[in-house]
Amino acid sequence: MSTPLDSPDGGGTALLDRELRELIEEQTQDPGDHERFSHYVQKDKIMESAITGKPVRALCGKKWTPGRDPEKFPVCPTCKEIYEDLRK
Predict the structure, then answer these.
(1) Is the pLDDT of residue 28 over 50?
(2) Are 38 and 64 in contact (CB under 8 A)?
C-alpha cells in the first residue's frame, strides 16, 4: 500500500516544504502589518471579488476581501519587490 508521500516525484514533500515556507514567512511579519499597506492583486481577481465577495490573495500572500481605498495607504514593500522581480 502506498501513501501520497511515497510518490516518486516527491509531490507530498514538496507541498509540505512550500507550506512550511509560507508559515515561516507569515510568522516573520508582525500581526497587522498587512493592514497598513495597499497590496498588488491581479485586476481580474479584484473584479471577481467585488462581484462574488470572495477574498483575494496579494502577491505577498495576504488574503482578504478588498473594501478600502488603496490610494490612502503606502504600497506593501513585499508586493512591490515581487512585482518588480516579475517585470524583469
Answers:
(1) no
(2) no
Instruction: Check: pTM over 0.90? Answer yes or no.
Output: no
CA 10-18-6 angle, to 5 degrees, is 20
20 vs 69 pLDDT, higher one: 69
Measured between alpha carbons, how far is 12 from 6 in angstroms, rounded to an integer?
8
What SS3 state is found at 82? helix
73 touches 38 (CB < 8 A): yes
Rounded distance, CA 48 to CA 13, Å?
33
Residue 70, pLDDT > 70, answer yes
Residue 65 and residue 57: Cα distance in Å, rounded? 9
- What the block records as the C-alpha cell of 68 is 478600502
